[in-house]
Structures are given as structure tokens and as C-alpha cells.
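I am writing to request your help with a piece of structural work I have in hand. The matter concerns a single protein, recorded as an amino acid sequence and a row of C-alpha cells. Could you please explain, in whatever detail you think fit, how the C-alpha cells follow from the sequence? Thank you for your consideration; the sequence and its C-alpha cells are set out here:
>
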Amino acid sequence: MWQSLFIVWRESVEALLVIGILFAWLNRQPNSSHAKKMLWLGTGLGILFACTLAIGFTLAGEWLSGSGGEWFQAAMIFVASLLILQMFIWMHRNGRSMKSHLEREASTRMAKGGLGILFLAMLAVAREGSETVIFLYGIGAQQTGTSLMDFTLGSIFGFILALMTFGILQLFSHIISWRIFFAISEVILLLLGGALLMSALDKAGEQLMNLDIPEWLYTWFDPAWDTSNLIPNFIAPTLASFTGYRAQPSWLGVILLPLYWLVALIFIMYSGHSKN
């Protein structure tokens, strides 16, 4: 529940920010009533695209059964993990200029008529919605013990919390910085991305164990160590869900999880040097 709540909350806030920037820009333009209608229509079409994608993933998961379904879920969890890393890099590269970039895009498309604003809003919302769908599918695929009700409630509460967060950040933008919000949420997202990466490895490892593969490949999925006696049982599941912690991590996980964070750290250092 908490993972789905966080994902929907964070991605919805970003989508609301994009729509808010475009709406504020249109408010400053003369004769923009038609463009505003196109903005809301584009927003609706973007949401519809994300919902269609969600239905497609659900049907694909049901259609693929047995080993094929497990491989599909492992692949989608892995894609969600990489997409979180890609989104983190994109935000660091474009976050500061996002407002000016959107306004330039809106100005260019406004000159082409209301349909330009419609497509800009649709693409922006569809992008955020698609990311949310992939993240949620990845989370749902790794949480075999989570009920659909908990998952749905987490998503609903996440959206309600996003509306409240957006309103608070807009009202108190002189006190609470958007930059701080994104910095904190990006760290949590990276933690979640690492957890998804470990879940993808777990699923892939389970399927590989059923295949006739060279013996040396099995050793990559052998436990590197055992810390089950160090972490209390009531903390371990939450820690695993949000950080990728494993009491008995595979050797492959021990290598890939630090590498995942190393890529993010190298980009932070590189982007910091390039700005100086």
C-alpha cells in the first residue's frame, strides 16, 4: 500500500505541476479561453492513454501464464527500476529549466492554434501517467501478498495526498521550495528503484533455477551472506520493500544494487561539475 501511495503521490504532483505551469501561462495570454479548453481536453486524453496502457498490461499479465507470465513480470519490474533511474537523471538535467521549457513549448504551439496546447498537455500527462502505470505494475508484480484493495486504497490516497501537496506547495512556495520536494522524493524513488531491481533479480533467479543452464550461472544467485538474525522480522519486509534489503542477497544483487546507486551518484557529481 505504501509503495503505491508514494508512487501515485509523487507522479501526480509532477503532473499537476506541469498542468499548473501551462494554466498559469495561459492566464497571462489574451483570448486564451479556447486554449484552456484544449488544455483540459489534452489532460483528459493523457489520462485516458495511461488507463488504456494499464488495461493492456493487466490483460498481458493474465494472458501470459506460468513461466511466461513470471518472465514478463520480472521484465516489467526491471523496466520500472531502470525508468526510475532514467527519470532521476532527467529531473537533474531538466528540472530547473522545466518551467521555462514548458512555456516556450506552449508559446510555439499556441501560435499553431489550440490543438498545439492539446497535444502538449496530452503528451505531458501521458508521460507521467505511463510512468505511474509501469511503476505500479512493477510494484504489484513484486508484492504477491498485497491485496488488490490495499493496492487500490494506496493509489487513491496517493492521489488525494498529491492534490493536497500541490495546493500547499503553491500557497507556501515562498517557504517550501519545489526543489526540496523533488530532492527528497528523488532519493525515496531511487530507494524504491533499487528495491524493484532486487525483486526483478529474485523473480529471474527463480525462473533460471528451473532451466538447464551452465552450473556457474547458478552461483550468481547463491546467497552472499545471511543477516536474518540482525534485522527484526517486523522491520525486514518494510526495509525490503523500500530499499531492496535482503537478509540473504544473491551475489548478482550485491553487485548490481551498488552499481545502480553508483550510476546515480556519478551523474549527480558530473552535473554538479558541469554547472560550475
About this structure: Residues 2-275 form one domain.
